[in-house]
Design a protein that fits this description.
Elements lengths: L1 H23 L4 E7 L1 E2 L3 E3 L5 E2 L1 H13 L2 E7 L1 H9 L5 E5 L9 E3 L4 E10 L16 E4 L5 H6 L5 E4 L2 H9 L5 E5 H10 L6 E3 L4 E10 L4 H10 L3 H12 L5 H64 L6 H9 L3 H11 L4 H8 L3 H14 L5 H10 L6
Parallel strand pairs: 1-5, 1-6, 9-10
Antiparallel strand pairs: 2-3, 3-4, 6-13, 7-13, 8-11, 8-12, 8-13
Length: 391
Amino acid sequence: MPAVFLAVLLLASVATGASTQAVVETPRAIRVVLDNAYAPYSFQSDDGKLQGILIDQWRAWEKKTGIKVEIRAMDWGEALRRMRAGEFDVIESIVETHGRRDYLDFTPAYGTVEASIYFRNDISGITDLASLKGFPVAVKAGDQHIDQLKASGVTAVILFPNNDAIVEAARQRKINIFVADAPSTLYLLNKMGIESEFRHSGPIFRDELRRAVRKGDTNLRTVSEGFSAISSRELKKIDEKWFGRTIDSRARYLVYGAYAVAVAMLLAAGLVGWNRSLRKGIRQQTAALQASALQLQALSQRLVEVQEAERKEPAPEGTEAGSEALARLSPRERQVLELVVAGKTSKEISASLGIAAASVDTYRSRIMQKLSIEDLPALVRFAIRHRITSV
């Protein structure tokens, strides 16, 4: 009886210890496999260093859990095969499908990715999967869309090991149409400088990215809880590092508003200056017109006085001599005489006859010398007597 009791006690102790060990035991390290050409989530730098959003997130997970993370990157088809063979504990950025549920358990989705059809600029009519019939279409090996392409009637499916290989083949014009996820494809097209050679359809697939472990693996809970411990602020900071920050449209509008205010102020200042200049010009023109009016008024008054004097005085002797002197004037001198007695200034006569103002003065001196006249009033009286002008 004591022997039986001891045996039972021993079995209970062993069972309890095993149960306790199953509850508290956590892995010392976790092996993660992911795509080696899936920017910005996971890709290699020019010097071969693994980088991207998922790399930074797993480093944060490592700090939160204290569990060492061993990350391996490889072609996607190989990653799927080796994960299924049990070489890794977690596979990253995988899409849940009916076939994969047979051998994998999935975490909740952490992101959404869209896939489109990319085709060369000189190809038209590509709108959806049905429009791909008859065309050779490139796609990444292991991609969950391969079966859907074949089901839509695409028979010439060309497999490539990764997205780098697809876009490189496109650069070399070995392929003209391919289906791939947008973030990675746009990154590679721009990196290789051929983004202007291709167009793309609207999204034909919209998939949720998850993490997965082997069927029944208790690491699923460890993985999920570790990522739940990373704050949204930390995750946002990682996303902004690789996606960039959204441009603040409010700040942009404030800048535009400041520009508009500055332009308005400049316009207002310009209008004020222009208004002042216009008013000054108007004042100057008004003064000039007033001066001309006074000059004309004085000349008119003088002519009236001369006419009145002529009416009162008898016709002087020497009229015939005056006519002879008038005949000695040249045609140009006669023109100048008519304009002078009409009250025109030297500047006005110069503009009217197309000669220099100095020449006008010279002609006027010759005229008065030939007519033996000493001043302008006498010249006006002479012109009236000989009917060169009248008032």
